């Protein structure tokens, strides 16, 4: 019986994993640059956490979550996003009591959503996300956005636009919720059954509805920005003026509400028209979530963050980075069983000295072994035949300078080091 990977999942094969490592390293470097530390939380959490944090009227929770009962009947969910787990861990580990009031963390790893798989949409996908908890300040919002912009710039993603909007504070959201209800009440019977339920529980989510997207009432719906309290408006104005001062291009997109319930104040998305990603692709997004930590039982703690889909970041990275594949330092090519016994000793010694190396394990002739050396982009091919065993030497062929030397066993490391540091050119 042949098995296939579950629908919506992807195997990352060795030929592709190098790109993932490069992307991860770049993201770790940028994180360090912003003094953001890694935090790792479980891949599954209590289902209730996401119902509470993300919201049970959102599509992510109500339609897309992988939820199951464990052997003791506890309801658990594979995480569909990273913020809820971070906020839960922040409360559970009393990180609000740490001397540094502003805690800046990042996470990287798989997320799970039961969506219809299509180009750029998987059921298991990866996100890199950043959360900044503890300080309510437009300066922190802007640091977050700046970091998100740094990521896309570092990856060379083209034609990106930062879209921003404000959902306001509790007071603004109450006023806006009422405005939405007044707006949709007369047309409620034209909307789908999900939207009818959303109308009572959470009218903001009507705006995400894919079924009713074309309904004229959607286009003419009130905008959050017109319902901001004085405090929320001042916060948003400061965000905009800081972005102006930093000369970061942005557009105020009054339709941007984001699909998760925990957001308040600033929300943003990075949208790219890079042809590699497909027009108008959202590479990542985020926003402020001042009520979340309190909602999860912690003290009132403001937060702001963003997440990028790593598969989308990789698409952008794909083309330009093909040629700099890291090669082996040495590929060892033994010919015969005595040579192989010697090769095993040499390879252990070379690895202990920090060189990357491999050897033939298939007892092939020279031609086949040279092909492997080539495929692995080996700097050196080390040939060991009966004669070399007898003379206690190896034959070192440099695949860069195409020179070949007989090297006594005790000189191998010195020879490689000298050659690699450029000493060879002066011989
Ligand atoms: P969200 O958590 O919904 O704001 O998503 C943040 C980013 O994660 C999106 O902009 C996408 O780049 C990525 N993303 C979300 N869902 C998926 C998915 N099913 N497959 C691949 N990437 C996704």
Report a brief summary of the structure.
By secondary structure, this protein is α+β, with helices and mostly antiparallel strands. It is built from 15 helices and 16 strands. The strands form three sheets. Strands 1-5-6-11-10-9-7-8 form an eight-stranded mixed sheet.
Walk me through this protein's architecture.
The chain has 427 residues and is of the alpha+beta class. It has 15 helices and 16 strands. The chain has helices at 14-33, 47-55, 59-62, 83-92, 138-154, 170-184, 193-201, 216-219, 230-245, 292-295, 310-317, 337-352, 366-375, 386-391, 412-420; strands at 37-38, 44-46, 67-69, 75-78, 103-112, 124-133, 160-166, 250-252, 264-272, 281-288, 303-309, 330-334, 357-359, 380-384, 393-398, 404-408. A hairpin with an 8-residue loop joins strand 9 (264-272) and strand 10. Helix 1 (14-33) packs antiparallel against helix 5 and helix 5 packs across helix 9. The protein is elongated, with a radius of gyration of 28 Å. The termini are far apart.
Percent helix range: 25-40%
Question: Which radius of gyration do the C-alpha atoms yield?
Answer: 28 Å
| Poorly predicted parts | none
Small molecules bound: adenosine monophosphate
According to DSSP, the number of beta strands is: 16
Number of helices: 15
Oligomer: single chain
Percent strand: 15-25%
Shape descriptor reads elongated
Give the class from helix and strand content and strand pairing.
Answer: alpha+beta
Strand order of the largest sheet: 1-5-6-11-10-9-7-8
**How would you characterize the largest beta sheet?**
8 strands, mixed
Mean of residue pLDDT? 93
């Amino acid at each position: 019986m042949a098995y296939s990977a579950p629908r919506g999942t992807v195997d990352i094969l060795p030929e592709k994993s190098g790109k993932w490592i490069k992307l991860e390293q770049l993201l770790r470097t940028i994180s360090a640059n912003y003094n953001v530390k890694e935090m790792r939380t479980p891949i599954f959490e209590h289902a209730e956490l996401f119902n509470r944090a993300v919201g049970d009227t959102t599509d992510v929770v109500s339609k897309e979550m992988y939820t199951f009962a464990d052997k003791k009947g506890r309801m658990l969910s594979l995480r569909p996003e990273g913020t809820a787990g971070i906020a839960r861990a922040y409360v559970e580990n009393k990180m609000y009591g740490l001397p540094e009031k502003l805690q800046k963390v990042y996470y990287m790893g798989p997320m799970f959503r039961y969506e219809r798989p299509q180009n750029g949409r998987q059921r298991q996908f990866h996100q890199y996300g950043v959360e900044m908890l503890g300080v309510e300040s437009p300066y922190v919002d802007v640091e977050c956005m700046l970091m998100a912009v740094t990521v896309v710039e570092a990856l060379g993603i083209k034609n990106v636009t930062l879209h921003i909007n404000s959902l306001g504070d509790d007071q603004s959201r109450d006023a806006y919720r009422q405005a939405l209800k007044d707006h949709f009440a007369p047309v409620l019977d034209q909307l789908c059954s999900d939207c009818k339920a959303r109308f009572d529980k959470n009218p903001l989510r009507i705006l995400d509805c894919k079924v009713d997207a074309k309904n004229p009432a959607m286009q003419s719906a009130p905008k959050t920005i017109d319902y901001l309290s004085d405090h929320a408006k001042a916060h948003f104005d400061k965000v905009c003026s800081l972005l102006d001062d930093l000369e970061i291009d942005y557009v105020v997109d009054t339709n941007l509400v984001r699909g998760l319930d925990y957001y308040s104040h600033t929300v943003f998305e990075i949208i790219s028209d890079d042809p590699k990603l497909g027009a108008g692709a959202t590479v990542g997004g985020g926003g402020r979530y001042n009520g979340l930590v309190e909602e999860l039982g912690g003290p009132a703690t403001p937060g702001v963050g963003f997440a990028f889909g790593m598969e989308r970041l990789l698409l952008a990275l794909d083309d330009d980075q093909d040629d700099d594949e890291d090669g082996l330092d040495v590929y060892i090519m033994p010919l015969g069983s005595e040579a192989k016994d010697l090769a095993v000793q040499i390879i252990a010694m070379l690895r202990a000295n920090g060189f990357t190396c491999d050897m033939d394990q298939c007892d092939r002739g020279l031609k086949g072994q040279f092909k492997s050396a080539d495929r692995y982009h080996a700097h050196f091919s080390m040939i060991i035949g009966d004669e070399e065993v007898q003379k206690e030497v190896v034959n070192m062929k440099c695949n860069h300078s195409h020179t070949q030397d007989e090297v006594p066993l005790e000189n191998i490391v010195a020879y490689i080091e000298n050659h690699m540091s450029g000493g060879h050119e002066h011989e």
